[in-house]
């Protein structure tokens, strides 16, 4: 599952000219369901969205408070296009996105989990599969992306940091020993 979260002063969703939902200060959350996602990812993402610290505290220290701690609101909007791939050509490829049936099922789990972990009155929704007009007044702007299954990092150097045959251990840093000629040490 992937979300793009925007800290907002206000946000709203309108469908066919009719206001569906609106919030004041809080989070606008665009959420996409991957074809490999499960209920576990949807529930985990809901918790992450509510815990992310995007506001300052009373001493003006940034990134100290989450949406619950500021008594903010949350507007969730389904947006499968977050999973678009454009590696080949200019046309987006949406093959990573879940089917509409699975997408709705897991998006609903995500949305209901956000409501149950926070407050039913403070969490609003868009309309799944609708063409929505999403309005917002960005606060900052602050926009972040969260994935429950981030892509695996590949080793671009080809360096293998651990060789079990020579007994070396690797703990996250590369250490190299250099021997300096004695003449340089004099």
Shape: extended
Number of strands: 6
Which percent range describes the beta-strand content? 25-35%
Number of helices: 3
Q: Helix/strand-derived class?
A: alpha/beta
Question: What distance lies between the first and last C-alpha atoms, to the nearest angstrom?
Answer: 60 Å
Tell me, rounded to a whole number, the average pLDDT: 88
Low-confidence stretches: none
**What's the Cα radius of gyration?**
23 Å
In which range does the helix fraction lie? 10-25%
Oligomer: single chain
**How do the helices and strands follow one another from N- to C-terminus?**
EEEHEHEEH
Query: In this structure, how is the largest beta sheet organized?
Result: 6 strands, mixed
Description:
The chain has about 190 residues and is α/β, with parallel strands linked by helices. The chain is built from three helices and six strands; from the N terminus they run E-E-E-H-E-H-E-E-H. Strands 1, 2, 3, 4, 5 and 6 form a six-stranded mixed sheet that branches. Helix 2 (about 100-115) links the parallel strand 4 (about 75-80) and strand 5 (about 125). It is extended, with a radius of gyration of 23 Å. The mean pLDDT is about 90.
Give a summary of the structure in a few sentences.
By secondary structure, the chain is α/β, with parallel strands linked by helices. It has helices spanning about 40-50, 100-115, 180-185; strands at about 1-15, 20-25, 25-30, 75-80, 125, 135-145.
């Amino acid at each position: 599952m992937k979300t793009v979260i925007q800290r907002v002063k206000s946000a709203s969703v309108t469908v066919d000219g009719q206001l569906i939902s609106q919030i004041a200060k809080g989070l606008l959350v665009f959420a996409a369901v991957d074809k490999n996602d499960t209920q576990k990812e949807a529930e985990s993402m809901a918790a992450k969205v509510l815990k992310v610290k995007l506001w300052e505290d009373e001493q003006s220290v940034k990134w100290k408070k989450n949406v619950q701690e500021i008594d903010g609101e949350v507007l969730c909007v389904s947006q499968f296009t977050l999973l678009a791939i454009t590696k080949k050509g200019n046309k987006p490829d949406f093959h990573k996105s879940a089917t509409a049936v699975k997408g709705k099922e897991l998006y609903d789990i995500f949305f209901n989990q956000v409501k149950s972990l926070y407050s039913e009155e403070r969490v609003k929704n868009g309309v799944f599969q609708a063409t929505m007009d999403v309005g917002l007044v960005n606060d900052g702007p602050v926009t972040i992306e969260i994935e429950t299954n981030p892509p695996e990092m590949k080793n671009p150097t080809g360096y293998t940091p651990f060789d079990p045959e020579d007994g070396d251990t690797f703990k996250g840093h590369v250490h190299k020993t250099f021997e300096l000629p004695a003449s340089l040490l004099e």
